[in-house]
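ugh finaly. both done.
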Amino acid sequence: MKEEQIKLRTRLENYTPDEIGATYPFTKRLARDNAWTLAYAERVVTEYKRFAFLAMVAGHPVTPSDQVDQAWHLHMLYTYSYWEDFCGNVLGKPLHHQPTKGGSQERDKFQDWYGRTKESYLEFFGEHPPSDIWPDSKKRFGEDVHYIRVNTKRSWVIPKPAFIEWDSREAKHLLSRSILIPSLAVLLTILMVTLSGCSLSISQQTVQAFPVLDFGSFLQFWLPSLAIAIGLRFILKYLEKVKPSDEESSEINPYELAFLSGKKERCITVALANLAHKGVLEIDKSEKTIKLSGELPDNAHAFERTLFSSINSGEIVDAETVRERNEYNLDSIESGLFSKGMLLSDAARNRVTFIPWIISMIAPMIALAGVLFGSFNGNTSEMILYTMVGVVVSAIVFLRMPWRSFLGDRKLSEIKLQNTHLYSAPYGKTSEGASGLALSVGLFGPDVLRDTSLSEVISVCLDGDSSEGGDGDGGCGGCGGCGCG
């Protein structure tokens, strides 16, 4: 960075829109107006300041995420703070807000600006923007442009299930895939054949609208539908493949690999194990606490550096505190994996989970209805038991939500296959000849340390880590133009 850019970044990092002594400062209002936690609002303010930095130095028009734009909108209401203090004293020039004029050309323009903004973010800050504040363009210019003000004193707000949130273009894309249509056709055929035995007889006392069932017919329907649901789960996950945005998408560092294998908890475990191995951390097994005990080596990974700096000298902390202080950096790892196409979005995870689960539940629900309406031939208690078993099996098979994409699964499997020897030898070398400790813990979990000198790391592992991701509405440019996001 140039000297002027460094000075600007320092001024922005030291700036706060919160008025000293105010009982209801800017950040609290931002959190309230958007139904955010205070911690999340504080992170959005940090991203807003980074966005302002990019607006000054990127050399091209920039567009914020919707979250950042909400902070920007609110800040402009504090007219003196925004124009005199922020623009005048911190930025050194005005930062104007320019909303979209509407239309497809404007949408395409702002999508391009948004992509370039995220590229410049990586260039200037050396990390990907956090995905929960800077979502991908599809969400930014799709879902995020549909926010409206709602008076919650007058209206209830009920969220839609995420698995039905396909937009029309995405639905057409998925339904046009020839592999999905035959699967649905087979499912419908089974349903039609099964339900063809239904008879509707109306009398003064009875309405019979269910097939006459026995346990054999239940299995004949349930087992094929279960197999179809399992196949559909794999198909849906395959169809959710995301084209990597990084040219170096095949490269993955140990902490990205740890995230793929065990999410954020695994990243913390790997860092603690590595730093303890290097003599940087001291772990109290009985108290389950951590404190610094040495200097950080020059060759330490960037994530280890940020984790090290989050613990004050002489301070005693637990692993949960370490995680909370490094949430932003964990989000950066997650964002990097999203950009490489290795994680599923929340909506994709719900689709892959719940659509097959619903299909697998059709047979048990029909059987249960048959029992309730008296159209079952056999022991009713046994049929109810078998139906409940079907419900439990469906839940076990389908309600464990995936987070890795098809590409992420394949990458993780490849690296595990290349380094299976590290499961029994965590201090060994990787397939490429490097130290294998981080890779061993990242791939196989903390239990690989159980009979080693680092066994105390297991005592501080976080819960969840064990050994088994429309219309554009704004843009901005330098001192002259900014738009809402």
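ok and the 2nd:
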Amino acid sequence: MKIEGKSWANKGGFYGKTQNKSMKSYQQVITMAKQSDKESQYELGLMYELGVGVEKDLKQAFDWYEKSANQEHAKAQYNLGIFLALGKGVEKDIRQSKHWIRRANENGYSGASIF
């Protein structure tokens, strides 16, 4: 899917290959995410959305994006808006989708400017 690819591309190969010793593990990301680190919450959302290092789970992805989005993480706000627009892992809600995508744009995420 184009949206997922774009989201993944924005990570700049963050997770790399499994042989890469410098990549963050699921355990490192979850630990930081549970400590309310908005970047780690966003990364965990990506992991669950794409099934990287964990089993794909769109509900978990949505929940982690929402936590990050509530802390003004622009990419998480955009992804949350897309989930709501498409009904990915949640009930479709166009009004809320527009809200989150506008916030992403206001917070500087240029990908949201097309809305």
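summary for the 2nd one i guess: Residues 25-114 form a domain with the Serine Threonine Protein Phosphatase 5, Tetratricopeptide repeat fold (CATH 1.25.40.10).
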